[in-house]
Specification:
It is a single chain. By secondary structure, the protein is α/β, with parallel strands linked by helices. Helix content is 18%, strand content 31%. The strands form eight sheets. It has an eleven-stranded parallel beta sheet, with no helix packed on it. It has a nine-stranded parallel beta sheet with strand order 14-17-20-23-26-29-32-35-38, with no helix packed on it. It is elongated and about 110 Å long. The structure holds uridine-diphosphate-N-acetylglucosamine and calcium ion (CA).
């Protein structure tokens, strides 16, 4: 794609977000697993702009670090230019903080940093409208059921743009207007710069309103138009936790319908929590109470019973995750079966057809093809081969209080119930381990390792050895 040489994008994310009542800077609050700012940065990618600027201020360091560190994970390739707004005294002064960037480009798309539901295709349409019929300022307007809190778009008798009036400054008649400013604008950069220089503090908080630039452009005989957005949910600006919850719900619905379109079955589409980047194969069935988070990929024809939690993991085809399975940072190959109540902790890999069942925990371990850890076990820091059967209640003792140690269990080993492996320890292929053993030394190929006290039977009349 050819970069739009004349266009830069500027995202305003310096505001304090007081109404969120949170110590986390507003742009970093997440919607369906990703910070608001990442949704906006990602949407803007569609335009392939020559530069993207982000104005930071409140929590500047944290916001900048998070963005810088996360760009690859967010699949954002455009480099980001940061501009710091030292005093958060309005969206107009936020844009002013990025003047050095604006001066380099003919046109600029300005976006509020708190509208995570904006769709890339809407941004594209708006820029296309601007390109097809250039003007000095184009503002995205949308008619909403409840305009409270938004700047109202006031039009003159001919329906042409007149001004934007903020909630705090609006009289009763203006408050009745349901067409609001969505916080998305395309400006001819020179016209914007000239208007910015004329801003004066407004409203109860003495703020420099970006919205006022449109009136100044008009006064200067510039052309200002409104671009109408059809879907009002795209314009939802997040100022409070209630609005954040609302955005989460709307985006969740969008995500689920995308998966429905791809052939995924949901028993109750309203009771699943799927992050934006998750992929699910066709014919997979997802039951209620399921969380699929982060960068999770689920294959085709899987069954995810209720209450399943999968984060940043890859699950193959034809896998069954039974009720209550919890998987984090792990890989599960085709036809595996997990649960009920299985726990894969980070760094676990289950090869094809492996089974991890009832109340078993696996950490940073490889479970070989077709191997089974079905009941009440803890397997940590272990390399397990193929065709291994692990009896109920088997524990790898991987931690000596200071360091973690490896257990190696080679192919086709049979482990009886209630065995402890005191790591570091190796069990060679085809070996067998007697139930109740505590294994501290290597067991050779095909051998039987047994390490437990002999049974003693105390008869009523004295002691008799059993065998
Ligand atoms: C703003 C618009 C309003 C519009 C609404 C859409 C203005 C004056 N008003 O109101 O017309 O309907 O968005 O959601 O712009 N910011 C800074 N520095 C500041 C102040 C704000 O970077 O000093 C950033 C914020 O981080 C935010 C954006 O600008 O991303 C908008 O600020 P916010 O305080 O949320 O404005 P609203 O009251 O929602
Ligand atoms: Ca806002």
């Amino acid at each position: 794609m050819v970069a739009q040489k004349n266009l830069c994008v500027l995202i305003l994310a310096a505001g304090k977000g007081t109404r969120m009542k949170s110590s986390l800077p507003k742009p970093l609050h997440t919607v369906c697993g990703f910070p608001m700012i990442s949704h906006i940065l990602k949407a803007a990618q569609v335009l392939n702009p020559a530069a993207v600027g982000v104005v930071i201020g409140h929590g500047a360091q944290q916001v900048m670090e998070t963005i810088k560190n996360s760009l690859p994970a967010w699949e954002i390739s455009t480099p980001i230019v940061f501009a710091e707004q030292r005093e958060q005294n309005g969206s107009g002064s936020a844009v002013q903080a990025a003047l050095p960037l604006l001066e380099k480009f003919e046109n600029v798309l300005v976006l509020n940093g708190d509208t995570p539901l904006l769709q890339p295709q809407t941004l594209q349409k708006m820029v296309d409208a601007f390109t097809a019929d250039p003007c000095d300022g184009l503002v995205a307007g949308v008619t909403v059921p409840d305009p409270f809190g938004y700047g109202r778009i006031v039009r003159d008798a001919d329906g042409a743009f007149k001004a934007i009036v903020e909630e705090a400054d609006a009289d009763d008649t203006t408050r009745q207007i349901t067409e609001i400013n969505s916080g998305m604008y395309v400006f001819r950069s020179a016209a914007l710069q000239k208007a910015l220089a004329q801003l004066t503090p407004q409203g109860p908080k003495n703020e420099y309103y970006l919205t006022d630039t449109l009136s100044y452009i008009k006064k200067d005989n510039g052309a200002v138009r409104v671009f109408s957005v059809a879907d009002y949910t795209e314009a939802l600006g997040i100022n409070s936790k209630a609005q954040l919850a609302q955005a989460e719900q709307i985006l969740r619905k969008r995500i689920v319908s995308r998966h429905l379109d791809n052939g995924v079955t949901f028993l109750n589409p309203d009771d699943v929590y799927i992050d934006e980047a998750v992929q699910i194969g066709a014919d997979t069935v997802v039951c209620p109470g399921t969380y699929l988070l982060g960068r999770t990929v689920i294959g085709q024809n899987c069954v995810l019973e209720g209450g399943v939690y999968v984060k940043d993991s890859t699950i193959g085809d034809n896998v069954t995750l039974k009720m209550g399975t919890y998987v984090e940072d792990s890989t599960v190959q085709d036809t595996c079966q997990l649960g009920p109540y299985a726990h894969l902790r980070p760094g676990s890999v289950l090869h094809k057809g492996a089974k991890v069942g009832n109340f078993s925990e696996i950490k940073k371990s490889v479970i070989g093809e077709g191997s089974k850890v079905n009941h009440l076990s803890y397997i940590g820091d272990t390399r397990m081969g193929a065709g291994v059967n692990v009896g109920a209640g088997t524990i790898t003792c991987n931690y000596d209080g200071k360091n973690k140690h490896q257990t190696v269990i080679e192919d086709h080993v049979f482990v009886g119930s209630n065995v402890n492996f005191v790591a570091p320890v190796t069990v060679r292929e085809y070996a067998k381990i007697g139930a109740g053993s505590t294994i501290t030394k290597e067991v050779p190929q095909g051998a039987l390792g047994i390490a437990r006290a002999r049974q003693v039977v105390l008869e009523k009349k004295g002691v008799k050895q059993n065998d």
